[in-house]
Amino acid sequence: LYKRSVFLDNLQDEYYIPENLVKSIKQNINLDYQKNLTDQYEFLDTLPSKLKNELIIYMNRNLIKNLKFFQNQNYDFILFVLPLLKSHKLEKNEILFAVGEIVEEMYFVVFGSLSINLGSFFENLEIGVVRENSHFGELLMQTNECSPYELKSKSRRSDVLVLNRQNFLNIKNNFNEKII
């Protein structure tokens, strides 16, 4: 997926392909990628649970090793959380949530970085950066209040994993330990 995206970016630069066409192509690539993930999980469901779990851990070993969220967590926790995460590709300046919105998801940065801004009233002053292997949004999601921040992609491309509020609450209910 990453190689295809880089190849497309190079084509865009070389042949001056319009941004809207590039965005449409990337969405198509992402849909193919999501279908492939669905096929993978359907295959995994055919395996005995021990083999399935071992393969899931192996397939996601870099994610487990690098994401701070998974550090010091047991395998039961990791195996419970991994299928709940949804992949999302972002272009530069794509907004995940704006000032005044209720935050419904938390974001894990796999590639690139996200910018935390105060919004247009404060001339979009950047007050923080969420870097690769970090996460953001869990505290705002738990407070259920309007966000004082805007969160958007800072990099030309960013890959994030998204965990929605319902799945976050399911994790909290199934694992009494602190998850953030």
Can you put this structure into words, describing what you see?
With 180 residues, the chain is an alpha+beta fold. Helix content is 44%, strand content 22%. The chain has seven helices and eight strands. It has helices at residues 2-15, 19-44, 49-59, 61-66, 75-81, 138-143, 165-174, and strands at residues 86-91, 95-97, 105-111, 114-117, 126-130, 135-136, 150-153, 157-164. Strand 4 (114-117) and strand 5 (126-130) form a beta hairpin. Helix 1 (2-15) runs antiparallel to helix 2. The radius of gyration is 18 Å and the shape is flat. The two termini are 29 Å apart. 19% of the residues are buried. The model has no long low-confidence stretch (mean pLDDT 84).
Task: Summarize it.
This protein has 180 residues and is of the alpha+beta class.
- Mean pLDDT, as a whole number? 84
Number of strands: 8
Low-confidence stretches: none
Oligomer category: single chain
Strand composition percent = 15-25%
Order of helices and strands: HHHHHEEEEEEHEEH
Rg of Cα set? 18 Å
Q: N-to-C terminal Cα separation, in Å?
A: 29 Å
Strand order of the largest sheet: 1-8-3-6
Question: Helicity, in percent?
Answer: 40-55%
Instruction: Decide which structural class fits the backbone.
Output: alpha+beta
Largest sheet: 4 strands, antiparallel
